[in-house]
Write a structure and sequence with these properties.
Layout (H helix, E strand, L loop, with lengths): L1 H15 L4 H10 L3 E8 L10 E8 L5 E8 L7 E4 L1
Length: 84
């Protein structure tokens, strides 16, 4: 039982570390977003082809605060910004 709990905790920890703050920051900067605050892993926010799920809140060019997720893959996949 303890082994299963430890495995579950390890698995959850690995998934929550699957964020890419550098890539997410660049994607949002390229869209002229300001006051960018990056969060953690966003469960179920991206497609199955995405490995990194980085949540964020930011101010868009129209001065509205928006929230969403920057999704990206491990290799050869550009970033996708998805809004809540």
């Amino acid at each position: 039982m303890l082994r299963k709990i430890c495995t579950l905790i390890l698995f959850a920890g690995l998934l929550t570390s699957c964020t890419d703050p550098t890539n997410a920051q660049k994607a949002l900067d390229d869209l002229s977003f300001k006051d960018i605050r990056l969060g953690g892993y966003a469960w179920f926010a991206c497609s199955k082809d995405d490995f990194f799920h980085t949540s964020f809140t930011a101010t868009n060019p129209q001065k509205k605060v928006v929230a969403g997720t920057v999704c990206s893959g491990l290799f050869f996949k550009n970033s996708t910004v998805r809004f809540n």
